[in-house]
User: Fold these one by one.
Assistant:
Number 1:
Amino acid sequence: MNTIPVTHFLVVGAALFSIGLAVASTKKNAIGVLLGLELMLNAVNINLVAFSRHDPHLMQGQLFALFVLVVAVCEIAIALAIVLRVFDHYKTIDPDKVNRLQG
Amino acid sequence: MELIAFYFFAGLAVAAALFILFTRNLMYAAFGLFMSLLGVAALYVFAMADFLAVAQIMIYVGGVLVLLVFGIMLTQASRSGANYVRVENGNLPVRLTVAGVMFVLLLKVLFSADFALSGPVESQKSTLKQLGMHLMTTHLLPFEIIAVLLLAVLTGTGYMAYNRIRIR
């Protein structure tokens, strides 16, 4: 298991983060944006876990990743509840069309 | 051998993420996220985070994805009829360029960085016991705070979804 260098994990994390960014900014649907957000949070978690490998006694990376996991779940639950309310109010969840505050 | 398996799962995660980016069907995008999260869980195993890998599968694949699919079902206008959740990709070239620039920038930083890693990779054994020890000793405060956060989120989402039915 010692053969995989940390850079490999970081490159995968960077790729997933960039794709998540593209998804979050491209999708014309609030749930699509949430999918991109989840991808970005996972990419960050990969980095934390990869660095935690070199810290086998304190394992702060894995603990931080665990907390990120829980906060991500909280975020997705709240966001979906908000999306449902927005859908009731506007009859659409296209972020571009929810623009009543626009001047 | 491990490197090949690593590349396989990394490729799986990235390919599934790209599939999310380019598909027009939101339901397929959710399944793409499923594959991507499974790939990430496998990467956790390669990074010797066995507990996190299992937690990833249980929380994301078992919980978040079901929640997302419920969200997709509840936010579709019933007039479309067909079982095809279409979502447009707006302004794709510009945003792909932005993301690509971001990726190149991150790679540049990664390969020019000189990480001061504290030591070589050791322990092959499970990290579960250590994680539990740390959660109950050094990281007790964040652990409790996150418990309160979960309670607040539970009541908040329940309240929002419940009122939604009554207003109709």
Number 2:
Amino acid sequence: MATVERGSAIYEGSRIPSPTPTVLVPDPALEDVLTVNFGPNHPSMHGVLRLVVDLHGEQVVGLNAVIGYLHTGFEKTMEQKTYWKCITYPERIDYVSFQYNELVFVLAVEKLLGLQIPRKATWTRMLFSELARIHSHLVYLGTSALEIGAISIFWYCFRERDLLLDLFEMVAGTRMHTRYFQVGGIAEDIPLGFYEQARAFCRRMPEAVDEYEDLLNRNAIWQQRTRGIGALSAADALALGQTGPNLRASGVDWDIRKREPYLAYDQVDFDVPVYGGGDVYDRYKVRVDEMRESTRIVAQCIDRLEEMHGEPWIADDRKVVLPPREELHTSMESLIHHFKIVTEGFPVPEGEVYVGVESARGESGCYLVSDGGPKPWRVKFRAPSFAALEATAACSRDAYVADLIAIVGSLDAVMGDVDR
Amino acid sequence: MSYEGVPGLVETREAFGETTLVVDPARVADACLHLRDELGFNVLVDITATDYLGWGDAGVSGYYATSGGRDINDPMTQGYARLPDARPKRFSLNYHLLRLADDHARVRVQLWLDDGEAVESVVPVWATADWHEREAWDMMGIPFAGHPNLRRLLMDDDWEGHPLRKDYPVGGEPVRFSEAE
Amino acid sequence: MALDPSVDRARASKRPLAKAGLQSERLLWPTKKGVFEDEVENMEEALGLTTLEKALAWSQTKSMWPATFGLACCAIEMMSIVSSRYDIARFGMERFSSSPRQADLMIVSGRVAHKMAGPLRQIYDQMLEPKWVIAMGACASSGGMFNNYTILQGVDKIVPVDIHVPGCPPRPEALMEGIVRLHEKVTAGVPPAYQIRGAASG
């Protein structure tokens, strides 16, 4: 067909392997090719990714990624649960920046419902989303630097991570997987001591980022291990569906928070770091700068939230939102609403929506199809790590084995997100 | 934004602020090339397949909300017992596209397919479609003609059945004192 | 006297505490006065469990190297017990061994898909005795919130598990409690799970 011939021209001049964009095939003329399995149980801590790599000496000449070792069947399982019960599931998809999947799911349900969210809930969601972004980048930096050999960074990053998780624990009661976002707002009000501790965190965080940069940026070994490695041009990145830090490191200025603002991102002040090289070093720089920018956003959210003290934190629509527990003792209607919402679930109007947010890894999206009943008919999560891993073959074209580890680390793929 | 020139266009729908273009499955590759080259949709965000088997069979459970939205100040609009609109065929395949430019836009291309009906692969149009189409094949059993590497992606290579179909059981173990879910 | 593993294992399995007449069953809690503790004390005096076995058990707990088996969210909390706040290095366990041949403890942290069950069993088989397994989190213990076609409902279907740690994910302190209880179990003389269950091991 004419389309295939016209279309295959995109692979000329690009580093995307052909005919399969995600598989690097060794040159058949090469002799002495060794096939090595970087199996699902991996020292480089990225979860259960399997790379079948063909090596010619130290050079990677063939690459094939096998995924699915963490396939959890989220989408099928969520079709069996009512919307309120569903909220626990998305968090565990991208388990490192867990708030984003929750956020995108509740935003999708609220879009179908046409529900108005109180502004306190919006700002709190923004605050925790940015904290989740910082959390994700800290874990990225800790683990990627560990794999490249800068072992102490792991302990420094996790020290700040514990401070951050203390903030989550103050508000939601648990460190990870807080299930804090509800359809209509957030689950609980913010306790009073939170603001001071959050401000202390915001003071500490830029100093911590300075420490990481002092250790790594001009370190000769780090430079040699990351500069020029795994370069991905802007056109290739777009063709491979990259979004988020991977795309911004390749020189494309695209951030959903700025272009298609959701929550209250158009009311806060922040910059979006963009670097042009597309190599491992630039991806590292983008994420480190994003940590600083997120801290700025968090500081602004704290100030605004303190002004909103005492406002409602969840929508008032009792057909969708659980009533406060005190009311259950006195009001018959509240009891009935509570009963209906918990047992049968609230019905969501028929329709299909797609909502995309800028998560720490890229565009995280939720496509939700509702049949008008209390359970979702189809829910699909667009995983940014899925697209990021597709780029492994294109980035690893002339890489050595050691570079491969650095590349996979810099693409920052979380296997729960990839396999869902 | 005019989508008149898209080859194979059957219908254009607007809902919830989103545009859906229903396209004839036989012309999907032409439509995607047109969207990418003429209209500038350079990023394929997602390919989602949905199975509509049993759509509307659940009958009326309490009440259904209307698709026009709800007005909580007007109690009578909170829905009346009705069944959802019928779907033309069993499977729908949705391509979510993004024009990543200063005049950014999003659109959804929707195809309707029967069981076993093949669709031409758009891997030559957007490289990222590779794994998305493999996942749609693996999970829903939608075959893609011309895909360079159509194998199972998430399930084991020798797995039988397509798990996300509505007639595939959820599986797992029976748990005492748990309801049907 | 040289320690001959075959001889000592035979001795240990000949006299498990239950066969020696231990009626109650619980983990040893040294500071608590209870039926179990009294029975164990009496039995130790009666049977004269050797100092050497006690020393062996003590040393096994002091530097039990975990195998890296982080699968999902629990792996992030497992990584945080290595961090400075929850420091697992004080137990001698900060050396997570990537090679199963050098590992003593497999902490299965995260949901196990059926596709992953094969590699999990392979890694378990490659570990050398004595070896212990901790099922960390709800998903490893029982399948967790995922009761579906793809998640193994409990990792104890394929490997014998010594300790189950509940939580989703368990706090780092909870995981350390599980590890400490495992140490107590070992020093109490309870054999590793593969000896009790009779599961075939490599």
